[in-house]
Amino acid sequence: NSNATGHFTVQASTSNVDGGLGGSTVTADITINAVADTPRVTNARTFANVQTSAGLVISRNAADGAEVTHFKITNITGGTLFQNNGTTPISSGAFITFAQANAGLKFTPTLNSLTTGRFTVQSSTSNIDSGIAGNSVTSSVFVALSKPAVTVPRSNSGQRPAISWVPVPVADSYEVWISNFSTNSSPFHQATTTETSYVPTVDLGIGRFQVWVRAKAGATVVSTWSQSDFFTIMAPVIANNPAAQQTTFRPTLTWNALPGAHHYDVWIDKISNTLSDNVSEIVRNTNVTSTSLTVSSDLPVGTYRVWVRGIALDNLPGVWSASVRFRIAVAPTISEGQNASFSRTPVIKWNPLPGANHYDVWIDNLSTGATQVVRNTNVTSTTYTGPDTLPFGNYRIWVRGITTAGEPTAWSTETKFSIVGAPTLIQGPGSTFDNTPTFAWNALAGAAKYEFFIQNLTTGATTLNPKNITSTQFTPTANLNDGPYRWWVRAETAQGLRSQWSAPMDVTIGGQTKLLTPSGPTSDTTPTFSWKGVNGAARYDLWVNKIGGQSQIIREQLFSATTTTHSPTTALGAGVYRAWIRAISSTGQIGLWSVPADFTIAANHERLDSPHLLPDTLATAAVQLTVFDPSPTERVSKDDGTIEPGQSVSDVVLAVETNAPTVSWRGLLHPPSMIHIDDAELDAVMADRASMHGLLEI
User: Fold this and answer.
1) Residue 693 backbone dihedrals phi, psi, to 5 degrees
2) In whole angstroms, how large is the CA radius of gyration of the chain?
3) What is the phi-psi region of residue 575: left when phi exceeds 0, alpha when psi lies from -120 to 50, beta otherwise?
4) Rounded to the nearest 5°, which phi and psi values hold at 626?
5) Which of 10, 242, 262, 678 is a good FRET partner for 666, with 20 to 30 A between their CA atoms?
6) 678: left (phi over 0), alpha (psi -120 to 50) or beta
7) Which CA distances in Å does 4 have to 7, 34, 482?
């Protein structure tokens, strides 16, 4: 690599050995001219519209030395070439010194162009073309898109944060990449936009996120990804407004699903204008995995406030939702009194309400249309006993609870009841000779009319059943046949509500009375005979036989309408006796004989229940009879408005049946006069069918 001058000496010789040398020597000089070789140059990279900051260093060929003092620059394309200071331009065809070249050049790409910049370099031993030698070499400047600089708020309550970046020259679009660190999802969301900002088109939800952006020019040219930027989203849940008044003690609360929420935290407070009633976190559930929560235990009646927040998979909490309010306003459930019929005083019961301090009761009269006939706003128990002054009619009742703070619950379901007390019978003789007696009763408050019902107890047939009686008494317009009867009255409102039937009252037409005493065994030898008085009677006829002995041992005509007792003056001996009595009117009308009454006077040495006191003829004279016995208790409880008093559901009538219940009567079926006496009148009377009815009645 030396360009020093070369020398050599020449001397003639006659042979090829030194002995043949002769003459003088001559010296020849060789001058070596320096020749430049191909230089070396580095490439560079830059971004559009950005001057290079490194590269473009030109150096001598390894074979060259200091003789290469310059480099010629040619064929500059794609931009402008500058010396190392970045401001002194180098034009195409210019020579630069080795020092300038070796310091590194700068290149500024053509504005808004991604075209690769180029220039050619040749070595030279001078700053003129004659010093140029060696091959030329080309340097390339690669122009790329710059990466965006991203900005995003660190913490966001919204689920679609605005992501922005500095515009990148030449870029015509940008690609956005978002990763979710809470769920380790990458990419979690990708998008392309031509803007220099981006708002996600979907809710990202709560969590921790990282975002990158890169620029694009056309379909294939892209920048490198930007530096990542971190942010969090702590969006609130949107809680749905529950019904303002909840009709359950365990309401179900719902909210919209929050993207990114792994589970939810629910907080409920009880609030009141009474400080002592406030309860914080009456419900707190920090791990609700669905978008609803049904409270697991009964909440007392009152007002509540609820908040919900989402929790991400990595336990990052969102912000609390706006609070929503609801009120537990469960209505009481009436447990007793629904559709009940009360004779006088209604008693209504309901289930207690947790949290209720007292209750409000409201009653309307449906029959009259009057409202709030009862309004009690401070019932402190769960039972309401109404006044006994409510008129006969239909009613409806509501109940609601009231909290200590004065908050009312919903009203209970309307419950209807009736006051259906029965009329009280006050006039209807037990026995009378009057075939058109007057029947009377007390007025029932609320009644518009009455229904009268009388039944023949001998046949079971309905005798009279007039309706729409507007007074409180009834007199038959036609004679009633002689015999026993039972009668009732019930009331009816103008709207058709019927009361209960009254307690029955019996009446006997035709003057038949009934012996009351004596009865059964006795040790009294002068027993007192007593009987029911007969209306219209002027005197009574008493007949006593000793069974198996003397007939008419007593036969007394008792001439007193007011006396209904008689004691014999002569003692009766031990034995079994049978007695009858009948009434006779002032006009001479003779009533039916009473049902025979047997009694026993015991001897001093005999027990009162000794079978020796009963003659054999009587011991074998039992009969089996079916007894028609209308039960007022059963009639009232089963009366649907169509079954008449005295009728059973199957319309049973008096009958003799082989399988019927038995009633044993220790006595003959025929009157004693048919066996022992010849009194034709007595035979006719005592053989009367009514006498058989008398036997049945006992």
Assistant:
1) -60, -40
2) 65
3) left
4) -90, 125
5) 678
6) alpha
7) 10, 9, 179
